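Thread: quick sanity check before group meeting

JM: Hey all, I'm pulling together slides for Thursday and realized we never actually wrote out the predicted structure for the chain we discussed last week. Dropping the sequence here so it's in one place. If anyone has concerns about the input, flag it before I start.
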Amino acid sequence: MIDITIDISPELLVIDAAHALKSSQHLLCGHEPPAMYGSQFAHGVAVARHYKRFAPIELAHYLTALVAQLPLGDLPCHSCIVAPVLQSEATVEPTVEPARAAIHLRPTAELAERVLLPGDPGRALALAQVLIAEPKMFNHHRGLWGYTGPANADGQPLTIQATGMGGPSAAIVLSELIALGVRRAIRVGTCGALDPTLELGELVIARESICRDGCSRALADTARVSADRDLCDALIAAAPTAHVGTAVSVDLFYDPEPDRGPHRLGGEEGGNDGEGPAIAIEMESATLFALGARAGVPVACVLAVTDVFDAAGARTRIEDHALLDAAERMGAAAVAALGG
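JM (edit): ok, ran it. Output follows.
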């Protein structure tokens, strides 16, 4: 159970219990919360409406945490609570109906034609708070958090949508975003260093990816897939200190075979086709490049180095605060590269 206790004085919160319960029923698509949770949920709605110290996104996740405690069998829609909270009033209906083309994403706000694709839903939230003015939740279904709104940098619409981990999940998300109207995308992800000169927190721009994962091989009958050239060049211009090179996409984060570990891949992947070796290892870029090429949608990729390896393959992981700083830097560069 998630602890949702909030210390709040009566002076800060005046609850109209009947109105709060009505609002809670609205957020559950007209259904009444289970009786044993009704008063708790109504109080949560009232807190969300009146407790001004919460930012809109924090309100959404507070209420989502509350909903997560209700028995799933009694809920008509586990994610329907979130979209209305990100509007100015909790009783406003979601502005966008889920498109039939999207089975796994259920849009609750307008989708921008340009999108950033972090893997981690938490990073999607962190980037939205930094890069978007007054972000609205775009998707919460399946835990794939997405946000949309005008970018702080240029005022133009921007969507940030988490893909989850691995090529199959990323392929589903990008396929549905393209069906919904996305026209260009940049993966803003993380990677392990294969080049020993790379340091934690540095940025890597992948011009191409080696297909060592099953999903990209299913999409492209080739050993390597390339990022969109123009979008990649724009990304390089926006992040001039980033390293530029080849990434390798794999299926396993924890490989049980020591001889296939990340410290081995850099040397193994170069030379056979006249191309250089991979400088970074990750899980999604090859799939996204292949899918973008098939759909005619420009896709590029910038990665933050989160793991480095010694000669024996021992991993050193980045600290959380350093990762957040790197994520903000690559997010800002990606927005600049996408343009208005």
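AS: nice. The longest helix spans residues 320-338. The chain has two domains: 17-85, 114-338.
JM: adding both to the slides.
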